[in-house]
Design brief:
Elements (H helix, E strand, L loop, with lengths): L1 E6 L6 E7 L2 E5 L5 H10 L4 E6 L18 E5 L2 H4 L2 H15 L14 E3 L2 E6 L2 E7 L8 E5 L4 E5 L14 H12 L5 E4 L8 H27 L4 H7 L11 H15 L10 H11 L1
Parallel strand pairs: 3-4, 4-5, 5-6, 10-11
Antiparallel strand pairs: 1-2, 2-3, 7-8, 8-9, 9-10
Helix pairs in contact: 4-5, 5-6, 5-7, 7-8
């Protein structure tokens, strides 16, 4: 089995490909056209049979535009999660920063094949197990290759950013509980450093699970005490995990989202990530 990974110059974003017997399955294959094309060139003539989109966030759906036609695979909730307005706004900002001029508006790709809970893709002699992994996103999936114990973790188990609970805290915790039961010898996160160090892999799992447990406990206590949203944000400011300069904002969004979901006095459509998306598109 050959696993190719290529990291973007933006957001520590990882694109990749599983290759076997002249057949390739690309995973979230890049952000900028030059990066996507460079990954394609690494495949040395292998047929791109599948393109897996791990979820519908803007940065994970850009690859197919610059690649030969292949079967696009995603979770069955992928299209429900697509927000073309948010995608185009975020992409326009990134392309501006990268000095890229777009000739035509971006059209998000639609999947050819979807699944609900799990499915298997045959790529040469590889068996790629795709599993629904909600929490960060309602339509997120992971890929596990059992022979090499390789996990493509999508947007969990990063070493450069906090877990972001865009979908549901309980689901996120259950996804991590499941991943902790796998034998993982190689880990590739959607953002961050790939690693085959067992100590680092275990630490990321433990740290993420601890952070989410602290988030739940802090917000549950605040809701039970009748705290306002602002009071809850202040009471939940001290958490044990910090990975980057953006962590403070991600943590605040996690607290706001969780506060609304756990019965706090806030409109879920006006706080957390929903608020952030609205502010971004208005800007």
């Amino acid at each position: 089995m050959r696993l190719h990974t290529r990291q973007s110059r933006f957001m520590h974003y990882n694109a990749g490909a599983f290759v076997s017997q002249g057949v390739a399955c690309l995973v979230d294959p890049g952000i900028l056209a030059e990066e996507i094309e460079a990954l394609h060139a690494e495949l040395v003539g292998a047929e791109i049979r599948f393109i897996v989109l791990s979820h519908a966030d803007w940065d994970h759906v850009l690859g197919p535009e610059h690649l030969p036609r292949a079967t696009i695979v995603a979770h069955s909730a992928y299209e429900d999660g697509l927000d073309p307005v948010v995608i185009r706004v975020a992409l326009a900002q990134l392309e501006k920063n990268a000095g890229v001029t777009r000739a035509q508006p971006f059209e998000p790709p639609r999947p050819d094949e979807t699944f609900d809970t799990e499915t298997v893709l045959r790529v040469g002699d590889l068996e790629l197990r795709l599993e629904h992994a909600p929490g960060h996103s309602a339509n997120m999936l992971t890929i596990y290759e059992p022979e090499s114990s390789t996990l493509w973790a999508s947007d969990v188990l990063s070493d450069v950013e906090l877990p972001s609970v865009i979908d549901d805290l309980g689901m996120h915790q259950r996804t991590l509980d499941h991943l902790s039961e796998l034998e993982i010898r190689t880990l590739v996160p959607g953002h961050g450093s790939p690693t085959d160090d067992p100590i680092r892999i275990r630490r990321r799992l433990d740290d993420d699970r601890t952070y989410l447990a602290e988030l739940r406990r802090s917000v549950e206590e605040a809701v039970a005490a009748g705290m306002t949203l602002d009071e809850t944000v202040k009471a939940s400011a001290n958490v044990s995990l910090r990975r980057s300069e953006g962590d403070e904002e991600i943590h605040r969004l996690n607290v706001e989202k969780t506060y609304a979901d756990l019965g706090g006095d806030a409109d879920a459509e006006q706080v957390g990530y929903a608020r952030a998306w609205k502010e971004m598109t208005r800007a």
